[in-house]
Amino acid sequence: MNKLRLVKKIIILVLILALPGFLYYLLTVGGKNRYKPLPIFGPKQIAKTSHKVHGKDIPDTIFHTLGNFKLKDQNGREVSFKTFNKKIFIVNFFYTHCPTLCNQINVNVDSLSANYAKNKMVYFATITVDPARDSVAALKSYAEKLKPKSANWLFLTGDTTTIYSLARKGLLVDALKAGNDDFIYNNKLILIDGEKRIRGYYSGVLTDDINRLNDEIKVLITEELRRNDKPLY
């Protein structure tokens, strides 16, 4: 009987000593793979360089990235690559005299951007597809009426060549003028990482997509902090 008690005590002691180590493993080793990395969209090619994984040479991949651009925000300030250097930003297209869809999307963007109003890593960029009418002054008037919750939400205009090229060649979505007052453009919100790569497309009108984008912005923030060796808080 005494031997049985002794065995039970030993088992309990072993469990007590082993449990902290097991939990530490889950948090430090296993925990690193708890989230699924976001995909990288667009054409890609194999580079001539490589990196080692478990002693094996793995070819590097060259991913699609946005080309540089120069636009102006609602305050007349120039916006380019430098504005979003090492930043996460979410892009959508609109025009100020759009009857209903644009306003619905931007209301959703406003609600989403409020979650990151104090986060200097996250920006929002809403680009007009009708720069002929949507001047800096027109965008400023639109923004003042909308009263965005985040100061990091930029409304952008420029020349049609830059905007349409950025849409089609950079962001891989449609944006063009179809008639006197008719524009074809994608209603997606597009998630861009700090390396200027496309990481996700989301409907600007579907609540489920907006919620998914909110979650995946957080995943991308974690990824960016780890890549730049910054503390995760």
Question: How are helices and strands ordered from N to C?
Answer: HEEEEEHEHEHEEEEH
- From the alpha-carbon coordinates, what is the Rg to the nearest angstrom? 24 Å
CATH class label of the domain at 65-227: Alpha Beta
Q: Tally the helices: what do you get?
A: 5
CATH topology of the domain at 65-227: Glutaredoxin
Helix content: 25-40%
* Average predicted confidence as pLDDT: 85
Spans with pLDDT under 50 lasting ≥5 residues?
13-33
Quick overview:
With 233 residues, the protein is of the alpha+beta class. It has helices at residues 2-28, 101-113, 136-146, 160-170, 207-227, and strands spanning 44-53, 56-63, 71-72, 78-79, 88-94, 122-128, 153-156, 175-179, 182-185, 188-192, 198-203. The strands form 4 sheets. A 5-stranded mixed beta sheet has the order 7-6-5-10-11. Strands 1-2 form a two-stranded antiparallel sheet.
Explain what you see.
With 233 residues, this protein is of the alpha+beta class. Helix content is 36%, strand content 26%. It has a 5-stranded mixed sheet with strand order 7-6-5-10-11. The longest helix has 27 residues, at 2-28. Residues 13-33 have low confidence and may be disordered.
